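New here. Invent one.

***
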Amino acid sequence: MKRVVFNQKGGVGKSTIVCNLAAINADSGRSTVVIDMDPQGNSSQYLLGPDWDQREANVARYLESTLGPGRRKVDPAEFCVETPFPDLWVMPGSPDLAELRIKLEQKHKIFKLRDALNALSEEVDDIYVDTPPAYDFFSLSALIACDRVLIPFDCDEFSRKALYTLMDNVDEVQADHNEDLRLEGIVVNQFQAQSNLPARIVAEMKKEKLPMLTPMISSSVVVKESHEANQPLIYFRRSHKVTQQFVELHKKLRRRRV
């Protein structure tokens, strides 16, 4: 399974969702790789710590290897880094991605991430892809490369208005580039059950029959604490309510595949 978490808006929890679902997947005994397509490298830092950007092996180096004459065929697994957590690897992001994007676009390398994920799928069970907060070359590459897409949503009215355009973009990618791509649903993140606005927005979205997933992920300081500790929640606070919400969400997504 190749899953991408995508939203054109920043601050909605893409990296948090990617890393925690991937860590739960690995903790269940399935070999798992996180691909960090965001130059900011939040997923990489979450899983590898503050020196994440010092790694020679990263997604920018893999994509760079596809450029130029006389290039050799490389194994994308060579660009993955083992995390401190069993059965969990990451292909780190890189600040160099921002500059590299223009070269990749000029050479029409939009399908190279798909090639990498197809090769990695022969070696590992599941792949999770984090994307930058924009509908750009890298997020399009990820949508083309994956089977499933999750959309994180933070119960903001501006985010809600942008959601329809985002879903249209996913539909367009499916129609034009990747007929196997399926929208699994919308993950409500940082949900505050006691606040009127988030509850009203979610209720209205359900009335519209949008693909809302449950459980919703509650807002909690423990998430930020796990970021600071560079430990996904399943390792940081296994019994915490938010951790168990992620565990239940992971179970439901797994059952849908069976």
